From TrEMBL:
Residues 135-360 form the Peptidase C45 hydrolase domain. It comes from Knufia fluminis. InterPro entries: C45_proenzyme-like (IPR047794), Peptidase_C45 (IPR047801), Peptidase_C45_hydrolase (IPR005079). Residues 42-51 have a biased composition (Polar residues). Residues 28-51 are annotated as: Disordered. Residues 29-38 have a biased composition (Basic and acidic residues). PANTHER family: BETA-ALANYL-DOPAMINE_CARCININE HYDROLASE (PTHR34180:SF1), PEPTIDASE C45 (PTHR34180). This is Peptidase C45 hydrolase domain-containing protein. Pfam families: AAT (PF03417).
Amino acid sequence: MDTKDYHLENIRPYHAVPYYTRTSPSLLGEEHRREERKHNKIGQQHGQQAATQVKGSIAFYNDFFKRKTGKSWPEVQEVAKQFLPYLEKSWPAYLEEIRGLADGAGVEYETILALNVRTEIGYGMLNDGCTAFAWKTKTGSFIAQNWDWEGQQSGNIVVARIAQEGKPTIHMMTEAGIIGKIGMNSAGVGVTLNAIAAKGVSFDKLPCHLALRTALESTSLQEARVKLNKAGVASACHIQVADAETGSIGFENTAFDQAELQMKDGVNTHSNHLTVSHNGVEDKGMLKDSPFRLDRVRELLVRLAPGPTIDQLKDVLKDDKNSPCAINRSPTEKSTIRTLFSIVMDLRKRTASVKMGKPTEGGEELELRP
């Protein structure tokens, strides 16, 4: 394999990590095993190029889970290992990528597995306080969000580019060590994520961040829809998927079911609470401002009708009404959660604009172009 295809570019204080390899489509027998080996290589490049940030993610979540759940790291690993029977049977290539990532970073396999099921380890009680929306117009298709999380994790954000033969090229923002998160692909499919505080975990469904990766490997919204419907998602979260031609669907998941949220006048919006009824599921509403942010983003988007510009969508993510618990989130005396990056994706043009940190501050500006 030609190592010139791999390099690490520092973008202070964040790190762009374009890791690139080629894999074959999933087939039977030797070709299936070959795909798993290629996924292992993808993981190795991730682990090698972002080793410092991967270890930073591990340190952050070690402390975080101890504080929030009372679990030691060995206990966290034991929870993560409960996914192995399902993943080994249904998603072995992802496990190989996780294994390669662990090898590349020089850490335990179970530790990287734990990072990739970090939403599920909290049994639905981790709440990244994010606001997301998608908008399909006659001339464009856009998907955007602010990703709000603990400020201590900001230095471990990476931007990764993954090219795979037979699949769309992915360009995404993620936490180092996690193989799927927020971004878009060369087929014009984009994804966003909102955590939801509702208890429950299903060990025979796809963990949230692996579901995001699955959507990013799809060539259309419909393909992603079929995959997510079939696999289900293991814990409470909202995954929004959009493509360049047909618009968006929001997949509001709990450990027990999945509801599809369709566009209204071309628009989909979400924050951090359940917006429809889910049988027997109690929404803990950890972020009390979530309903306000959802109403506010809808209000702002209505003002832009019949169609927005990219700059106008960026301005929506800058909104400070109800600060510090605004769309553009700031830390409070009780919480260190803040906006760590904002992203606006133009799916028809296959580009995304990313602003690191709060969008109203002078953070680095990046462009994704899968």
